[in-house]
Amino acid sequence: MQNQIEGLDSLVIGIDVGSTTVKATVVNPETKEILWSDYQRHHTKQAEKVLEFLITIGNEFSQVKQENIRVFVTGSGGGPIVEHIGAKFVQEVNAVTMAVEHLHPDVGSVIELGGQDAKIIIFKANQETGDKQALTSMNDKCASGTGATIDKCMIKVGMQNLSVLTRGNTLRHRVLLLGGPNTYLPFLQECWRKRIPATWEERGYDYPKDVPIEELIFVPDNSQYYAAYGAVMYGLHEPAGVGTYTGLEGLKEFIAHGRKAKLGENAGPPLVLVQRQSSGRYQGNVKAYRRQGEGAGSRAGDYWFRRHRIRSRCPGENAESGCKHRGNRRPHDERRSRIWRYRRDLRYRWSGYQGSLFKKWGYSQLQAVQPVLGGGR
User: Fold this and answer.
1) Are strands 11-17 and 69-74 parallel, antiparallel or unpaired?
2) Which of 119-128, 208-217, 232-241, 305-314 is the least confident region?
């Protein structure tokens, strides 16, 4: 390993930024051999984990100049990161397909489970040309049966959605199991080895029954890195200037300020505002919650005062004249009357609602649901 690094003057980095983990590989562009790899959970801090990986790679391969490094990123969380490090984004199904075609040209199908999606690839020969073609499908609309769900539940799944994932197609032997869940959960491998042959039997698919099932459906080495490695394989077919690494400063700026600024551009007005007096103190002894655009005497404003037990300062109080209500910790009389009127309105509305339910259900059924609906006062 050390000898391979010493004579290296260029490298290609593949990063798979998933929904729960980040995977990275460093590949020798000449031999296409993986020189370094890592797999870690990011705990919702995707950009920070990518930064950590890039720093580690920079320390490990310090002799390689920055202009001789290329980066290719894939995965559901890679899109916002690529522009800040000069990387090129690669669609993850294409990345996995390229890795499989390079490492296992003889396999017939691929099942790759991610944190919140599942990818199925079936290789078939074109009947007209005889060329090998890949039929790909990806379930990214529902996390059922994917890594995040299995990781949280830790139960054996029956893989009832196999036909849904394959879009009605039949998996062809040999079947390659990829992704973190397939790599680190042995019971999941057993489920595939039980369910897939049963489907073959149901559909009359001819597969070699004399071959051990562990060879027909198997997990290869480095199976968790296939998307990251495939991004590198894809990048090696790109022009030389594509994906040139631009360093860490852009990513650091994005982590510190970029995400907040981007969110500020797209976000709407806040639902709750905190109003301050001209003196800079909060109105009252605690924060005064108000819905935007609603005055102090509005029904919604009074509701927030009652809900959060706000003790308001008297509107007539000022630094010069003071007020007769100074020191009174209850709301001002006028404001308190509005609050009580609002509560009275709520009782009247509830009484009317009870009357409509009585006409619809009758007295006995209304009493049965009373504990669920709540009291009238």
Assistant:
1) parallel
2) 305-314
Which tokens in the block code for residue 205? 């698919």
Q: How far is Cα 351 from Cα 345, in angstroms, rounded to an integer?
A: 10
Distance of alpha carbon 253 from the chain centroid: 22
Apex 76 CA angle, 189 and 115, nearest 5: 30
Provide the CB-side half-sphere exposure for 170 (13 A, CA): 13
The pLDDT assigned to 337 comes to 63
Pairing of strands 21-27, 34-41: antiparallel
Instruction: Evaluate if pTM is beyond 0.85.
Output: no
**Secondary structure in 3-state letters for the chain:** CHHHHHCCCCEEEEEEECCCEEEEEEECCCCCCEEEEEEEECCCCHHHHHHHHHHHHHHHCCCCCHHHEEEEEECCCCHHHHHHHCCEECCHHHHHHHHHHHHCCCCCEEEEECCCCEEEEEEEECCCCCCEEEEEEEECCCCCCCHHHHHHHCCCCCCCCHHHHCCCCCCCCCEEEECHHHHHCHHHHHHHHHHHHHHHHHHCCCCCCCCCHHHHEECCCCHHHHHHHHHHHHHCCCCCCCCECCCCHHHHHHHHHHHHHHHHHHCCCCCEEECECCCCCECCCCCCEEECCCCCCCHHHHHHHHHCCCCCCCCCCCCCCCCCCCCCCCCCHHHHHHHHHHHHHHHHHHHHHHHHHHHHHCHHHHHHHHHHHCCCC
In this structure, what are the phi and psi dihedrals at residue 318, rounded to the nearest 5 degrees? -150, 170
pLDDT band at 224 (very low <50, low <70, confident <90, very high): very high
CA angle 34, 39, 44 (to 5 degrees): 140
Burial class (CB in 10 A: 0-12, 13-18, 19+), 144: middle
Q: What is d(CA 22, CA 39) in angstroms, rounded to the nearest whole number?
A: 6
In which residue are the tokens 């308001």 written?
A: 312
Q: Residues 10, 66: contact at Cβ < 8 Å?
A: no
- Contact partners, residue 302, CB within 8 Å, separation at least 6: 335, 338, 339, 342
* Terminal-to-terminal C-alpha distance of the chain: 76
